[in-house]
Amino acid sequence: MATISGRLINGIGEPIKNCKITLKSISTSTTVIAHTTASQTPSATGDYSMSVEPGKYKVTLGVDGFPPEYVGDIQVYKDSLDGTLNYFLGLPQDDDLRPDAIKHFEAMVDKVASQVAEVEKSKLAAEGSARSAAASADRASQITGLSTVADAISMASVPLPDVWIPFNDSLQMLTGYGEEVKVGAVTVAKMASFSRATTATYTDKSGTRRIAKVDEPRFEKNGLFIEGQGTNLNVKSIDFSSWRTYSGNTLLNTGKTDELGNEIWEWSYIAPEVISNSVVMQNPYGNLTPGRTYTASCFIKGSKDAYVEMYSADSFTRGEYIVEELADGWRRESLTFTTLAQATGYYLRLQVRNPTVPKKILLAGFQLEMSPFATSYILTNGSAVTRARDECSIDTRNNYISAFSGRTMSVYFDSKIGVKGDLWALILSANPARPNKDQVTYSSKLNQIWFDFMTGVVDEYKSVTAPNNGAGLVTVRNGQDGAVISINGEVTDSQFNASSDALMPSKIYIGGHPSSPGSSLFGHVRNLRIWHSPLTKEQIKAIR
């Protein structure tokens, strides 16, 4: 049991009067039944104090005359320290990493090391017995996730990162220095910096589509979602009122909207056209830039026979077709194509070839963008709309040290750029004067991961083949004895000249760089870790 106490105040320090704090149990614990509620109204000065049983709770604040406002979830453990409501709301949840998990990690390292030492003693003591020695080795191999004694030794020797940001569902730093979140004079959390000048859409971990506010980070199943700028060229994506159908097929507004604000329309088709043996619905668009790559996409629910198409008087478009499954039976279908030399008279189009029985499908949000892949959806209602780029960074002060002293960086990434022509994305960048140096880059044209760095005034780099799916754990280290790059634990054999910093940067940018707007990742990052030491190859292989 923990005591949650403090003072409920607004942004200018005034107590919030007549405000009820309600805790609703999310799941059944040893002492609390799921879905039960407890509440308390703070005093006139905003003071509150609650002794809270262990469990997970949904927290709402309700001011008289207004509906309750959900402010977040809290987790109370048997060993939780006392703190304010702000403090508990700022703590990581089970999906992230509990603060005491760091202690658990260190304890696990000590345990692994002691077990390895015990194995070695057993092997020496049982030198005359092969069976005894094998049993000792087997005990070490049973440590979760480790298959050999050597693996256990490597795991035990990896130190706690000096900077650690899981990027699972928040910007909170488990270790390192970031933007401080304070309750009074007490710092309760440190965060990475994030900004975006517009709203943006995303798909949460349950598959539900959502809208993020200005400067609100987007966390999806694979981590923090980072995109560059994008524009929906379809000037009225909110509905299908200007589209037309043929052969008695109908298109009706259902009167409902989806999570992103699009009107949901129902397309009912009965019989195919005689000439094309297909049913179509389309909307005139106009001319496109010749020889450029575009992607058209639409949210669809129902028959899997319908697909997105771009049509012109000259020909149908052909290209790469991708289907992304979402929640509640919805999917997002996209077509990537390159325009012909004339690129005139295009139609936005949906088509079903060779229909056999009458069917109905639901439609929402048709997007057209100059991009080699579908980016997050942008709602339009009368004119093209642009989504701003995401920018994420941490200060280098106390987080990033000179390469001569030695440092190691590791982060999981994935990117949509894939093998999409001559594209590249910055995974990490830390050079203020030359953003293409002292960085980790993903090149789709070469299907490689590049580690660029400086040796005095000389630029050097090393590249390794990227995973086929454009995703993986990349680790780089440099120091006086050279530089190394690793993908998913596979370490390069060659090392390089001693690495140095031409200029010590003020920030480390994650998933792009403001001076290179075309370098955005268009993907996810997760589990960024920085060590203020050059880890050995064996230690790098053990990073997970």
From TrEMBL:
- Which InterPro entries has this protein been placed in? CarboxyPept-like_regulatory (IPR008969), ConA-like_dom_sf (IPR013320), Stf-like_N (IPR013609)
Signal peptide span: none
What domain of life does the native source organism fall in?
Bacteria
Please report the stretch or stretches of sequence annotated as the Lambda-like tail fibre protein N-terminal domain: 3-130
Under Gene3D superfamilies, the record lists: 2.60.120.200, Carboxypeptidase-like, regulatory domain
Its protein name is Lambda-like tail fibre protein N-terminal domain-containing protein
Organism source for this protein? Edwardsiella tarda
